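Design review, sub-item: ligand-bound model
Attendees: FS, YL, KQ
YL presented the inputs for the magnesium ion complex:
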Amino acid sequence: MSTTLSFSDLSLPEEQVTNLNELGYAQMTPIQAASLPAILQGKDVVAQAKTGSGKTAAFGIGLLNAIQVGEFRTQALVLCPTRELADQVSKELRRLARYLANLKVLTLCGGQPMGQQIDSLAHPAHIIVGTPGRIQDHLRKGNLTLNDLKVLVLDEADRMLDMGFSDEVNHIISQTPTQRQTLLFSATYPVDIEKMSANVQRSPQRIIIESAD
Ligand code: ADP
Ligand code: MG
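KQ shared the predicted structure:
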């Protein structure tokens, strides 16, 4: 498979490439080089690469190009297994989006006051990052709708399954449009991930990055 190595080889907006350079991202990591061309074409991707390989920017750059910043609706949802990981993803997305002044990223996790989150949801965020239980709670209570969702990301999908979140994840997916792009990222690629991919994705491109260790 042919892969590009530089972000400037992708047809990204100039301000985005400048921002990546300012973040010190001179070259794409292998998972970014392998997945971004398909992600930017709107395809479903299931990708496995070890921790620390730059998976957040792989889907993050994709999200930022799929979103219409002028439309104040939730267009992307990233599900993460833990609050700590959701906070890290939100932080990285905000860094990646520094060139988009009006982009709003909202983090919704358990263990945080519900009332405050409901107040935040009064002004829709373009991107919501959260844990499955709390996102399901907000959907059930009618605080959040995902009718305008364009991209769904299941991050650390192997850990979400290990932690027993598959019912919550499936319920959330049932509330999203079938025309969505679904990106599934995982540090490992057990058979459960393959099954999940078959259930929630359409003709996904499968990318496995072998690690040297
Ligand atoms: P993963 O989700 O695969 O565990 P992360 O997305 O958390 O990995 O990225 C790990 C680290 O690599 C982060 O500190 C991130 O800022 C950095 N990083 C991501 N992409 C690049 C890149 N192209 N060049 C340099 N550093 C990068
Ligand atoms: Mg990650």
